[in-house]
Amino acid sequence: MRIIVGVTGGSCAIYGVGLLKVLQQLNIETHLVVSKMGEYVVNHECGMNLDELKSLATVYHDNNDLAAAIASGSFKTDGMIIIPCSMRTLAAVAHGMSDNLLTRAADVVLKEGRRLVIVPRETPLSVIHLENMLKLARMGVKILPAAPGFYHLPESIEEIVSIMVGRALDQLDIENNLFKRWGEK
């Protein structure tokens, strides 16, 4: 498999880091692109610099490189997860604003009919946010709010991260056992 991972400036950067770690353990090829604010939030919330984040990916693409492979539909991927996804990025994707590599890659995933998963992080949500999410959902984008359930009875932040990462992987049909599923003993 080949997955594009986008990390933007929404809070909950720990989910993006967790996703990259799991994909690395599963030996899934990852193409990472990080917005400027994504880099800032990863550093602020996780204490990781960009080089540490890049080390979790198979390939890193600079967000300004619109000539990168992931900017073309002829570069086959199995989908993209934007985790976390800021409202700025969500709006840009919803309206086809491909002004950087991250939003261009998402645009390519959409135009090629591939799977796009967006993990938005904002609260409260405005009507604009909700309308943009509805627009994307109508295009087949999976909207997975950064809001883990607690019926699993998580006992640590790591378990909460595993729940969200596992649910994101489920959207791309990537087998995982990162959390206890409902009805499992």
UniProtKB/TrEMBL annotation:
Its EC number is 2.5.1.129. It is an enzyme of class 2 (transferase). Coiled coil: none annotated. It comes from the Bacteria. Keywords: Flavoprotein, FMN, Prenyltransferase, Transferase. Flavin prenyltransferase that catalyzes the synthesis of the prenylated FMN cofactor (prenyl-FMN) for 4-hydroxy-3-polyprenylbenzoic acid decarboxylase UbiD. The prenyltransferase is metal-independent and links a dimethylallyl moiety from dimethylallyl monophosphate (DMAP) to the flavin N5 and C6 atoms of FMN. This is Flavin prenyltransferase UbiX. It comes from Alkaliphilus pronyensis. The lineage of its organism: Bacteria, Bacillati, Bacillota, Clostridia, Peptostreptococcales.
